UniProtKB/TrEMBL annotation:
<protein>
    <recommendedName>
        <fullName>cyclic-guanylate-specific phosphodiesterase</fullName>
        <ecNumber>3.1.4.52</ecNumber>
    </recommendedName>
</protein>
<dbReference type="GO" id="GO:0005886">
    <property type="term" value="C:plasma membrane"/>
</dbReference>
<feature type="transmembrane region" description="Helical">
    <location>
        <begin position="1"/>
        <end position="16"/>
    </location>
</feature>
<keyword id="KW-1133">Transmembrane helix</keyword>
<keyword id="KW-0472">Membrane</keyword>
<keyword id="KW-0812">Transmembrane</keyword>
<keyword id="KW-1003">Cell membrane</keyword>
<feature type="domain" description="EAL">
    <location>
        <begin position="23"/>
        <end position="276"/>
    </location>
</feature>
<keyword id="KW-0378">Hydrolase</keyword>
<keyword id="KW-0973">c-di-GMP</keyword>
<dbReference type="GO" id="GO:0071111">
    <property type="term" value="F:cyclic-guanylate-specific phosphodiesterase activity"/>
</dbReference>
Amino acid sequence: YLAFLVLACLVCGYLTRRYFDRRMTLATDMRKGMRNGEFHLVYQPLVELGTGAFSGVEALLRWNHPSAGPIRPDLFIPVAEENGLIVELTRHVFALAAADLRTLGLPPHAHLGLNVCAQHMARTDFVDDVEALLRRIEGLGPITLVLEVTERAALPDSEVVRANMRRLRERGVQWAIDDFGTGHSSLAYIEQLEADFLKIDRAFVNSVGTDAVSAVVLETIITLARKLDLRMVAEGVETARQSAFLRAHGVQFGQGYYYGRPMRARDLGAWRQAFVLD
Ligand code: C2E
Ligand code: CA
Ligand code: CA
Ligand code: CA
């Protein structure tokens, strides 16, 4: 029995150590990766559903690890959030976006969407980081910066967060609640954030024409957003049927493979030339 206990402890210890070692390695590799230019951004177009007009892009981070190959953001963003590296990583994203601006060639009043996290928003230097980016955007014409905050992680209800948001709003920044419907604090979030956009999570968009319960949730979200006078972006639109449903229900913007995949900045011009919404 004792031998079994000792063995169990050893196995447990080994597994936790491996788990934490991997996370440590990932953090070290991320730092190195930022220095060595292993990260780049891809941009996914947003389309105005009523007119089919291009309305802007969301920037999404990509990491090409030198030995492991491409690593999905779903894997490394949570690790970066855990060990605080997310702040450095987001600054890196801001710098990459600024460097891509000229190549992107966004038209006047287009939206540039970037993902930010609660941890960063609660820091006093958050505004400085965003303002550094704004100064570079302003050199290229009137482009609206839209910061996306996921509602999965709770945003601290702090004076710093409120002050930061207020200051950036005064500078013309707009706010979007990301992954709406998947968190637990949806309504509190809307109040706290005074958001401009709700991004409807693709789980609900996928339900169009299939899952009856989620479809009811989708219609409820749409009704709610309308009553609160929030503009909506439907995420993960993959089919003509979903697109038509969303447009018919008054959702203003769509984003998803049906319109365009995330792409390198240099490919956006060709996409815009070719895009027609049927
Ligand atoms: P998100 O912000 O909800 O981004 C949308 C995700 O859905 C992206 O995955 C995008 O590639 C994917 N997507 C877009 N259209 C479709 C579609 O039609 N069908 C399907 N199945 N998927 C679609 P991605 O790029 O893998 O990013 C995953 C998540 O990682 C993002 O979810 C976001 O939460 C996080 N993330 C990505 N880049 C950044 C970043 O720069 N900073 C931070 N903080 N988080 C990021
Ligand atoms: Ca997002
Ligand atoms: Ca989302
Ligand atoms: Ca998501």
